[in-house]
Amino acid sequence: MATDFPSEIRALRTTLESILKVSDLDDMRSEITGLSEQAVAPDLWDDPEKAQVVTSKLSHLQSELERLEKMSARVDDLEVLVELAEAENDADTLAEAENELRNVQKALGELEVRTLLSGEYDSREALVTIRSEAGGVDAADFAEMLLRMYMRWAERHSYKTEVYDTSYAEEAGLKSATFKVDAPYAYGTLSVEQGTHRLVRISPFDNQGRRQTSFAGVEVLPVVAETDHIDVPENDIRVDVYRSSGPGGQSVNTTDSAVRLTHIPTGIVVTCQNEKSQLQNKASAMRVLQAKLLEKARRDRQAELDALKNDGGSSWGSQMRSYVLHPYQMVKDLRTEHESGNPSAVFDGAIDEFLESGIRWRKTQEQNA
Fold first, then answer.
1. CATH number at residue 97
2. Domains identified in the chain, total number
3. Using one digit for the tens of pLDDT, what is the confidence trace for 132-155?
4. What is the pTM of this model?
5. Residue 64: partners with Cβ closer than 8 Å, 6 or more residues away
6. Residue 320 and residue 197 in contact, taking contact as beta carbons nearer than 8 Å
7. Which residues in 225-252 are b (16+ Cβ under 10 Å) and which e?
8. Of 225, 239, 224, 246, whose CA–CA distance to 270 is shortest?
9. Residue 156 belongs to what domain range?
10. What is d(CA 156, CA 67) in angstroms, rounded to the nearest whole number?
11. Radius of gyration in angstroms for the set of CA atoms belonging to the chain, rounded to a whole number
């Protein structure tokens, strides 16, 4: 059946107009102008932390604006390509137009998902913690597989990551790991990953080759901003220092540089050991603690307003995705029903379709609530 190009292109333009309206390009350009002026101020780097915020936000906005402008140009170019192909009755050019149509539809779908991220903290960077749960050494190994999966996903998108803490299991894998993803809307995007992930496979640690089911938990928090006013009095924190641990060899730290912070009123405990100095580890641990306190305050506020319904995937501990490597190959999201028959690709960071379906599913849940 021949493609109805006029109808398809009209649909593309409707979707694009909706995206551009939500994105507000005029406001984006105005913000870029303001940040550009701050970025060239001679005293900008007198405050390195503020300078990093300004330059990072400017870079993110410029990339986003370029992405939107390029998409508009692609739709225009596609329409010209179709007109040329039909005028010349050129089958090869029509095939090229067909391929570009599908590529533009996919790219627009990704942009449309971004417009669904309208939560209070969705535009923030993300702090992700992975913990091994039931399943012994297989669960610890699974936690390490998930860590690599998210790192590869970030790498595919050229997103900067910073590992704050890794706690290695005795035999293999990880007890837990915490890392930051420095990218626009990282929190809104990755927050749909929160919950319990389940792995079914023939255990590489079982000499009898039996099938093993193991679990790992993923927690996603927004990075705290200066405007959040999370006040943490020193008297409310207990600071413990200890020797950093590692998988062995030269990576083991021989000084007491690792830091554990305990927030006494809530009992929240965070650790950081991946920096070289105790001061750096304490600063990183404080950022994680503030993020956890911010999230706790948000949840408490929503509970008081009865605005948060604890549907599947919205709380720590809810099983949300299954990775099956035996007796068949399948990764399936238990909320959206989205699935992939290529677990190797998923573990190598190909999770965008799962993220997009999760975001759309969450928006539908919110609208139906």
1. 1.20.58.410
2. 2
3. 999 999 999 999 999 999 999 999
4. 0.73
5. 23, 28, 184
6. yes
7. eeebeeeeeeeebeeeeeebeeeeeeee
8. 239
9. 126-369
10. 17
11. 23
